[in-house]
Amino acid sequence: MLTRTGAGQRGFSLIELVIAITIVALLLLVAVPALQTWVSDARVRTAAESFQNAVRLAQSEAVKRSRTAVVMLTDSTPSIDAKPTKNGKKWVVRLLERSTTDDDEDSLFVRGGGEASSGDVTVGGDISLICFNALGQQTGLSGTANGLSVDCDKSDSTAVSFSRISGRTLKVLVNLGGKVRLCDAEKTFSDSQPDGCPSIAS
Q1: For residue 4, is it within any domain?
Q2: What is the DSSP secondary structure assignment for residue 56, as one 8-state letter?
Q3: What distance in Å separates the CA atoms of residue 41 and residue 48, rounded to the nearest whole number?
Q4: What predicted TM-score, i.e. pTM, was given to this entire model?
């Protein structure tokens, strides 16, 4: 009985193997920078959306409980004892004390997060504290009145930005009426670019 050998059983030659490895290496060289940009953009979006949700949570808690609620940027561990920090990479949503006897920490602390910190995202805008009244609108309480030693930010368009060295910059905008919006700072808002930021916030 004859056993068939030859072309049907031969493996890769050294030249074919080198060519295949070269092609894979070239594909990786093209794909890796794009993948790094995608990961960077995803981390920025996660941090920005998390803060946007925190602002909306503070508003809803203020309306629901008919009292002042704040969203605070901090570098401390998110807790009732966290202190406001400009451009902090973590956030805390909490209620303000109504009086010196209103100090039940479990009821004052609502939620905290640190997506910008874990994603190595830079936070900008020189904001540390945004406060909302019982109507869900921004209120400019002084640091003495709010008990946190830092004045609440209150402007026509409060903007907190989120970015990384490589990648896009996203902004969370809060206006005096309480409207909250996430926008791309590299685009200008228009009919063709609804995800862009208004020119005043770019």
Answers
A1: no
A2: H
A3: 11
A4: 0.81
The tens place of each residue's pLDDT in the chain, 202 residues long, gives 555 555 556 677 888 888 888 888 888 777 677 777 888 889 999 999 999 999 999 999 999 999 999 999 999 999 999 999 999 999 999 999 876 555 566 689 999 999 999 989 999 999 999 999 999 999 999 988 888 999 999 887 899 999 988 778 999 999 888 899 999 998 999 999 899 998 865 4
Task: Say if 121 falls within a structural domain.
Answer: yes
DSSP assignment letter at 87 = T
| Total number of domains in the chain | 1
Rg value, the chain, Cα: 25
Which residue range forms the structural domain that includes residue 65?
15-154
Cα–Cα distance, 185 to 202 (Å, whole number): 5
Handedness of CA 88, 126, 96, 54 (dihedral sign): negative
* Distance of alpha carbon 62 from alpha carbon 64, whole angstroms: 6
Tokens of residue 183, six digits:
């926008």
